[in-house]
Every structure is written in C-alpha cells, then in structure tokens.
Design a protein that fits this description.
10 helices, 12 strands, alpha/beta
Length: 251
C-alpha cells in the first residue's frame, strides 16, 4: 500500500495565512514563509499554498511569496489561486512550485486542464473541487465557495481525470473548519470511482479524523489547516498515531 500523505494547507490573503469556518470568518494564522519552513522541519509530506482571494479579486497568485516559501522548504509544494493560463503556471514553476492547483478556471475553461497536462505533465496538475450538499446532492462551488453551480461533484471529478489531471483536492464546504471529521462517504465514492489520488480537505479536528479519512474515506492524502497552524495537532505525533493504527506514513 502506498504511504498516506499529510499536507498542511496555507490559505493566503493579503500575504498572511488565514483560516475560517465554512469558508468565512477568516482569522490570521501567521506568516506563510515561517509556517512553511516549520512544517517542512516537522515532517509534512507536502504543502499546499492557496491564494484564496486571487480569483475573486481577479489578480495573479503572489509569485514573489511563492518564491520565498519555496526557498524554505524541501518537500513538494502545490500553489493555487488565480491561475488561468499556461503562462501563469510557467511563472509559478519557475518560482519554485512543484505542482499547481486550479479550481474556478478549470470549470470555466475545462480545456485548460488538457493544456496544462500536455505542457507540464499530469503529475503537475491538481484540480481543486469545492462542493457542498444541496438537497442531498453534492454541487460544485466556485470563487472560494461563493458561487454555486449545478455541476455534480462526481461527474466533474470524472471529467477532470479524463482531461489529464494528476490529482483531485476535494474540499467539503459543509465540513470546512468544523473539526467534526472529513466527508468520508463522498471521499470513498471518489476514490473508488477514479484512478487518480484524492486529497481530503475540510473537517480535520483530531487524529482519529485523519485515520478515518484514510480507512473509511479511502483518501490518498489528508489536508488540514487550523489544527496545524494553531498547534492543536503536531505532525510527528499524528504520524506516530497513524502508524500505531497500521496506516502507512512516511517518517
């Protein structure tokens, strides 16, 4: 079995790391460069850096900040926010990103997934999907969760894979920031229906939640923010806990 990955997420707004609940009520969580360096030292497997207001404000990801973060870490590093073209990705990769994440731009222009996969390779392309349940059905949302669509989560995920994405980062908006556990039923459905890795996001509150998303949700990686930023869970302790449960992790 492949080792499961633990991924801290740095949501960036105005150059600072922030964290909210259900995508709102954002609070300052520290300097992203310092946090990134600390997570690399503590044994995080990867980092995700999302400029959460880049799409909304129609500006590009803070490439200069990406460079500063990349200089401090020696682990794979995914960057997202406001990416809408091959040129955008070129800049981010040159500044040190290993992978890029697209969300709203992929929905608005699905061919972008194909273009990026063809140009940079599928392993470089992560498609982030934010979704919430409406009348019992998972619907995709755009622009940091602010714009609902009629797009079905599972149909869109299948198309994303077909177009060449290497991974899917699925965030349950219903679970985000609640610390009540991941959306494991939806994650398991994604994991069993697709052949690319699924990163679970939204809902981490304790170590058991991580174990559950790997065993019940069948996720390949688990992403979290506030529990790491505010020192509620230490990455070395989390990995030790997962190992005692028989879940393979890198140490």
């Amino acid at each position: 079995m492949l080792t499961k990955r633990i991924i801290p997420c740095l949501d960036i707004k105005n150059g600072r790391t922030v964290k909210g609940v259900n995508f709102i009520d954002l609070k300052d969580a520290g300097d992203p460069v310092e946090l990134a360096a600390a997570y690399a030292r503590e044994g995080a497997d990867e980092l995700v850096f999302l400029d959460i207001s880049a799409t909304e404000e129609r500006r590009k990801t803070l490439a200069e900040l990406v460079l500063k973060v990349a200089e401090k870490v020696n682990i794979p590093f995914t960057v997202g926010g406001g990416i809408a073209s091959v040129e955008d990705v070129d800049i981010l990769l040159q500044n040190g990103a290993d992978k890029i994440s697209i969300n709203s731009s992929a929905v608005k222009n699905p061919d972008l997934i194909n273009k990026l996969a063809d140009k940079f390779g599928s392993q470089c392309v992560v498609v982030a999907i934010d979704a919430k349940q409406i009348d019992g059905k998972w619907k995709v949302h755009l622009v940091g969760g602010k714009v609902p669509t009629e797009i079905d989560l599972f149909e869109w995920a299948a198309e994303v894979e077909e177009r060449g994405a290497g991974e899917i980062l699925f965030t349950s908006m219903d679970h985000d920031g609640t610390k009540e556990g991941f959306a494991n039923e939806a994650l398991a459905k994604l994991s069993t229906s697709l052949n690319i890795p699924i990163i679970a996001s939204g809902g981490a509150g304790n170590m058991d939640h991580f174990a559950d998303t790997f065993t019940k949700g069948l996720a390949d990686a688990a992403l979290a923010a506030s529990v790491f930023h505010f020192k509620e869970i230490g990455i070395p302790e989390l990995k030790s806990s997962l190992k005692t449960k028989g879940i393979p992790v890198r140490t």
